[in-house]
Amino acid sequence: MGKPDIPDWALELLSQSRIGHLATASATAEPHVIPVCYALVDDALYIMIDEKPKSGRRLLRLRNIEATGRAALVVDRYDEDWTHLAWVLARGPAQIITSNDENHAPVLAVLRSKYPQYRTMSLEDAEMIAFHPDRWSVWRA
Predict the structure, then answer these.
(1) pLDDT value at residue 52
(2) CB within 8 A of 66, min separation 6: which ones?
(3) Is the pTM for the entire model greater than 0.90?
(4) How far out from the chain centre does Cα 121 lie?
(5) Rg (CA), the chain
(6) Whole-angstrom Cα distance, residue 130 to residue 42?
(7) SS3 per-residue string spanning the chain
(8) What's the chain's average pLDDT?
(9) How far is it, in rounded angstroms, from Cα 132 to Cα 127?
(10) 111: which residues sit within 8 A by CB, 6+ positions away?
(11) What is the pLDDT of residue 141?
(12) Which distant-in-sequence residues (6+ apart) come within 8 Å of 78 by Cβ?
């Protein structure tokens, strides 16, 4: 494991950004995009399924990953001065992990460090998405 093979400015954008947009698709190619909190740990991205109110059904993003095993995440920076625009797009295999996975506890600690809101949530048994991009695209003005 190591860091993704992308420029340092793109790694900084991934590390400092507070939100990304996760894209998944159903087995019939129906797209689904949703804003998410995430953490970059080594060369993988992790997204917690937290306690915020949910519909009660299994989340569509999870059903889609179970069906296809793939996802994409885009993190971007917008500025009225378009010379500051930038984005990072990651695509690749994704899976759902539980507290039984060896990475769950250390990644939860990273997520809690990045997002103070997670510190008061009981997430030790929560699922999370483990996303291991095999394709990275980056752009900046």
Answers:
(1) 67
(2) 96
(3) yes
(4) 19
(5) 15
(6) 12
(7) CCCCCCCHHHHHHHHHCCCEEEEEECCCCCEEEEEECCEEECCEEEEECCCCCCCCCCCHHHHHHHHHCEEEEEEEECCCCHHHCEEEEEEEEEEEECCCCCCHHHHHHHHHHHCHHHHHCCCCCCCEEEECCCEEEEEEC
(8) 94
(9) 16
(10) 37, 39, 46, 48, 118, 123
(11) 95
(12) 85
Dihedral sign from CA coordinates of 136, 65, 107, 87: positive
Query: Nearest-CA neighbor of 140 among 95, 90, 96, 78?
Result: 78
Half-sphere exposure of 110 (CA within 13 A, CB side): 18
Burial of 133 (0-12, 13-18, 19+ CB in 10 A): buried
CB-CB contact of 64 with 26 (8 Å):
yes
pLDDT in tens, 80-125: 999 999 999 999 999 999 999 999 999 999 999 999 999 999 999 9
First and final C-alpha spacing in the chain: 30
If we measure between CA atoms, which residue out of 98, 103, 101 comes closest to residue 123? 98
